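New to this. Help decode both lines:
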Amino acid sequence: MGILHDLITNSVKRRELVTRDKSFDGVKKKMVFKPFITVSREAGSGGRLIAKKVAKKLNFKYFDKKLIEMISRKSKQRQALIATLDEKERSFMNDLVHSLLNPDYVSEQTFIKSLFEVVLSVAKKGNCVIIGRGGNFITSQYGGLNVRIVAPYLVRAGFTAKYEKRTLYEARERVKKYDKQRKEYIRQYFSKNASNANYYDVVINTNYLSVDEAVDIIVTAFKVKFPNWRSIRSLKSAKR
């Protein structure tokens, strides 16, 4: 794994030179965050499975649907309702109409504020993998390892058809739908293009790499970026 390790090391260190000491919207860094990982993914690329395996391998907490549960508690709204808003674009008119007609409706402002607070709170504690929701943009000034999982459209449709037991047509439509929703969500709330590789430390194409190979690359990149990091498990073992 020598050549692979060197490539990852050089890539991560170059990015560190570019991003070091920068602040978000001119605001100086004040909070200190422990090491964490964010995973952005294209629909059907295997990003969720990879993120789960990375969390398990590093003995990290994994935050996906758990974020919705936490937002629900913070905003004091039903979890099922919050889930319908997850990673979706919101139009001003739609937001206005629903807020007037539906007393249980969660406003855009409430949802996004709660999302930011929840993601920042879990990232600050470190030792976690946060998937989606623009996590890399929310935590951009706090230096986690930001990962993007991609694959060609037809490959992702094939993965979706195989693992979700769908027809190829259904899988293609599903991939298109979720790709569109996630990209528009990132564009609306962060004014960014989620597909821009410059926003990530590592971009992995699962057309060429297996899930386990992708996991190994992310874990290696994490250890390169945070050489002094030690897992909870390692710390416990050292005390014995």
Summary: Residues 168-190 form the longest helix (23 residues). Confidence is low (pLDDT under 50) at residues 10-28, 81-103.
